[in-house]
Amino acid sequence: MPIPIIDLFAGPGGLGEGFSSLRDHKREPVFKIGLSIEKDPIAHRTLTLRAVFRQLRGTKHIQHYYSYIRNEIDEPTFREIPAVAEAFANAEKEARCLELGKADEAGIDTEIRAALGGKDTWVLIGGPPCQAYSLAGRARRTNDKTFKDDVKHFLYREYLRIIKEHRPTIFVMENVKGLLSSQHSGSPMFERILADLCAPSPGLEYEIRSFVKKGNSDTLKPVDFVIQAERHGIPQSRHRVILLGIRKDAGASRHDLLPVMEPVSAKQAIEDLPKLRSRLSKGDSIEAWREAVLAGPSYLAGWRGPNERAMTELMQTSALAATWNSVGKPFAQKPGRKPKLGKQTELQRWVHDRSLSGFCQHEARSHMDSDLARYLFAACFAQSERYSPRLDIFPPKLLPKHSNVMKEREATEAIPFKDRFRVQCARDPATTIVSHIAKDGHYYIHYDPTQCRSLTVREAARLQTFPDNYFFAGNRTEQYTQVGNAVPPLLAHKLAKIVRGVLAGLSRDDRRKEKAASQATDGRSIGLISYKRQTSLGLAPVD
């Protein structure tokens, strides 16, 4: 029987996807999500739909799910199909739209107990909201006097309360790296959280371990709990604190560490997706787009930058090659070309789905024509120099007319927000995909200068290692936000393997104890028989 999982602060389900996808040698699931809790209604819709997918997978009715995400049938039609309606009824019990800290605790506890079904061995996963701990969030609220009272500082206590009440065998807790330096009223938050998790209540203790270094909270440094995702096969430089908590009375002796792998580049992750042109935010047409792209090289006049001549030629060549017509659509059929020969990579095996036979949510967003010139320059520069250009080396004509940029440039020639435009370089892992991608695409420029655009939702999802059949609810902005807030599912899958190893070790230890106890009992029985026999022979000692 699968081991139950309770997923708190679930977002669109990255952690849960990784755990629920783990299979044993018989292809049976190792873990099963019993309950996932998320407060955002859009992310909750995504969670629910994914729960439906898991129920339909392996049955003939999975075809209806594919028809829905291919945009062949609308949602009402999809939901009216009897097998799908039944799957939704079950999924709505699993995926709950609740706000921890505000929702009724007794009701949540009842749902958790029902989801666990009386099982003692289970796993708690999740990541309390991180805005209060992130470096960016703290920087934005430097002068905000209410920041220290932000309830998000202590939402981990809701996670802690579940631990106290329900005593999971293992928990996995994720948060931003900024947690290590975050303070509240002069007290380091990480030390406080670690102390609370080690001893949630009298008689309940946990050993807090790292997934990347041997030891526990007594011997490890805070930085030892940071997982650098790019070191473990994820095409993204995402650094997060992830804690492995093991209940002390379970008696776990050791665990494996995440294996280190060769870096996976952005190009390796997304190069097979259809090439698109961006939309223009005003007066979009193929002709207007091409005119805007062809005008890009003229902005280099007066630049005096590195390799100016070569850059001008590269921009001109790229602009002439920018002949893409498609801006994408809700679902794009995969071309009928024969697949490339050769062994698939781990990432390809993870994200590809032959049954889908195409790509969903791969549509270009709209940009201003002036941004097309910036994207063309930045992508060409990154292609030539192998790094993304900062604003202080942008051609003057391409500097954004942002008040801070212009004011600082006039005063001191120094430019703040130098990474305002950032290319995801083809040969390197992407930078961290965060929810800011929903605001604009400037931090997520495609490495291909002929496309002159920012990343699509599907490309961002690929860099986050969501399978291609993972469908995000809501409008495009809401989809980007969900992708940016998630834990990479492939990384979560690797964490799940380690957790499974810990639980297998506990099972082996239990069997050894049972065997030892059985042998001891047998020995006592033999001794008793021997004593009776000796007594009958008059050889046993007597008082």
Automatic annotation (TrEMBL):
Keywords on record: Methyltransferase, Restriction system, S-adenosyl-L-methionine, Transferase
InterPro entries in the record: C5-Methyltransferase (IPR050390), C5_MeTfrase (IPR001525), C5_meth_CS (IPR031303), SAM-dependent_MTases_sf (IPR029063)
Pfam families: DNA_methylase
Active site per UniProt: C130
Keyword match Transferase: yes
Membrane spanning residue stretches: none
GO term, biological process aspect, one: methylation
Reactions the enzyme catalyzes: a 2'-deoxycytidine in DNA + S-adenosyl-L-methionine = a 5-methyl-2'-deoxycytidine in DNA + S-adenosyl-L-homocysteine + H(+)
Record carries keyword Methyltransferase: yes
UniProt cross-references to PROSITE patterns, sorted A to Z: C5_MTASE_2, SAM_MT_C5
Enzyme Commission code: 2.1.1.37
GO terms, molecular function: DNA (cytosine-5-)-methyltransferase activity
NCBIfam families, per the entry: dcm
Family classification: Belongs to the class I-like SAM-binding methyltransferase superfamily. C5-methyltransferase family.
Protein name per the record: DNA (cytosine-5-)-methyltransferase
UniProt lineage: Bacteria, Pseudomonadati, Pseudomonadota, Betaproteobacteria, Burkholderiales
